[in-house]
């Protein structure tokens, strides 16, 4: 996977006439982050890092890690709703579970990634619900979640979307929570919350409706944490076991 990741990053850099430092800066990563991945110094980039880099390189995470043959997951055509590919499920969504970033990219199985009319301007990624924190919204443990993010992050507006997938950062000790949350705007304040059944929701309140300067998808919370949006929900799919 390391060689594939390195080669595909270099291919996208060449296609966009961009160097590694430029890509790192545009992705809001450390200046040497992309070069470190290319030369193998950084052997375990996180999903969040790859998602940011994929947006800058105008491709999907699945393409970067070798699970898709084309940079863009879907063709721009009248048949986009019929397009599909098999892709890795790259994250397990669980509210309240804080962990250190994985040392290497983890796959939670493979599933069908279906096309969507927004695909030409968006990267599409698969996640899996790892709990019932959104059961009140009809989204259950085991459901496959398709999320989208504009290739140009500056086109993203958090308050316009009903559900988002994001990473809540706790620094220190450097822990992350990956979860699906509903978005609500009250009196100019954006709140992100879960929808469990029979339990109190877990609430994240943003200290500002504006993102952190220079990072269009990163927001500060009232608890002095950070919340980075990886994408917004566009589809939920569910397999029913044979009876």
TrEMBL record:
Record-linked Pfam families: HTH_3 (PF01381)
Where is each HTH cro/C1-type domain found? 9-64
Gene Ontology molecular function: any one? DNA binding
Q: Which SMART domains match?
A: HTH_XRE
What the entry lists under Gene3D superfamilies is as follows:
lambda repressor-like DNA-binding domains
Q: Where is the signal peptide?
A: none
Full protein name: Transcriptional regulator with XRE-family HTH domain
Source organism per entry reads Rhizobium rosettiformans
């Amino acid at each position: 996977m390391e060689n594939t990741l390195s080669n595909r990053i270099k291919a996208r850099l060449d296609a966009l006439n961009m160097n590694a430092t430029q890509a790192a800066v545009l992705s809001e990563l450390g200046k040497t982050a992309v070069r470190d991945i290319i030369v193998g110094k950084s052997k375990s980039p996180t999903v969040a890092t790859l998602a940011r880099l994929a947006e800058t390189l105008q491709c999907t995470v699945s393409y970067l890690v070798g699970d898709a043959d084309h940079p863009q997951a879907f063709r721009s055509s009248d048949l986009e709703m019929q397009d599909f590919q098999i892709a890795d499920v790259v994250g397990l969504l669980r509210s309240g579970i804080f962990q250190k970033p994985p040392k290497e990219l983890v796959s939670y199985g493979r599933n069908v990634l279906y096309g969507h009319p927004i695909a030409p301007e968006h990267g599409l990624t698969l996640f899996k619900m790892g709990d019932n924190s959104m059961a009140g919204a009809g989204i259950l443990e085991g459901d496959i979640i398709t999320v989208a993010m504009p290739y140009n992050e500056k086109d993203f507006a958090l308050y316009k979307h009903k559900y988002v997938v994001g990473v809540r950062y706790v620094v220190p000790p450097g822990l992350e929570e990956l979860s699906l949350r509903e978005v609500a705007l009250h009196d100019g304040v954006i709140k992100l919350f879960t929808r469990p059944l029979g339990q109190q929701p877990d609430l994240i309140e943003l200290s500002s409706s504006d993102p952190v300067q220079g990072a269009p998808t990163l927001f500060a919370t009232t608890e002095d944490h950070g919340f980075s949006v990886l994408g917004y929900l566009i589809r939920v799919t569910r397999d029913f076991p044979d009876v």
